[in-house]
């Protein structure tokens, strides 16, 4: 059975609440991106659905009031667990890889729960997988991909015969730092000097840097942010995934979980970075600038985020996917997990072998990344 996310809200308390505080009492969100407010805004502002290649097809476990936000995909954009090679292999053999089923928060490579509602146990996980098999058969889908899940759930899926993929992201961990200088004291002398030099370069090229939260993110600031965000995509010859209306809806309904960092010059916002946060985690998500300014990306997206996390006592800061340059700025490598089902056995055998080799490569890569961290040996 499939339902809309609005109906998912009715399963829990009769409606999706307009404030994050109310929504937390209804849904046990493991991140702001599991909040129905975030997911519904994607649908209502047409960032998914229509001709986007993300067709909502949410799975319900009706007896247990659990909804699993999922999407039938016509491409592999916006997923960050790359399966283009799999699609190419299908094409070479004259077999259709798309459509496929994906379970994740669209455009959001954050490890979190992938369901709304009650707790999962082994029996419910088996029911979930059986429901996926049914959907894939009924909709003639090639495969299912459950991206950015915890290790425990990936292990449960592996017991049921699904394939596991590993990836590597980079996260900053708050080790009880009192302020940014306390954090920098854990660096080697050379790396500490490099960081201070980067920050001076960025800050000297702008007039001011401000944090805006909740009501402080007014229309003018949000419009300026969106121009920066969209401009950065256009510079790469791409279109932004998300609309201004989407961001406005989020600000109206969950603005107290959003941090906008803006850099101003000549009384104009020239660059901005949008973060989401809860009591224990900070997530760097969207960045943009309308002019090239040396080191400003690092300042707004990394260093300002670290300062904010320290000021709020936030434990963990995920600044976004990819980017080995994060290592030199104190972000440590972590393993990410995803689980996959491929319906055709003639392809699944080869793909399973690919996943095994990839896991070994990711383990080696993670060890190599650890050698690049800027911390003193005693802090490794």
Please describe the structure with a list of short key phrases separated by commas or semicolons.
single chain; alpha+beta; four-stranded antiparallel β-sheet; 12 helices; 15 strands
Description:
The protein is an alpha+beta fold. It is built from twelve helices and 15 strands. Strands 2-5-6-8-15-9-14-13-12-11-10 form an eleven-stranded mixed β-sheet. The chain has a four-stranded antiparallel β-sheet with strand order 1-3-4-7. Helix 11 links the parallel strand 13 (281-289) and strand 14. The longest helix is centred in the C-terminal third of the chain and has 26 residues, at 345-370. It is globular and about 60 Å long. The termini are far apart. The model is unreliable at 8-27 (pLDDT under 50).
Helical residue percent band:
25-40%
Q: For the CA atoms, what is the radius of gyration?
A: 21 Å
Classify the beta-strand content into a percent band. 15-25%
Strand segment tally:
15
> How do the strands of the widest beta sheet line up side by side?
2-5-6-8-15-9-14-13-12-11-10
- Number of DSSP helical runs: 12
| Average pLDDT metric | 91
How far apart the termini lie comes to 49 Å
Uncertain regions spanning at least 5 consecutive residues: 8-27
**How does the major sheet shape up?**
11 strands, mixed
- Structural class category: alpha+beta
- Give me the strand/helix succession: EHHHEEEEHEEHEHEHHEHHEEEHEEH
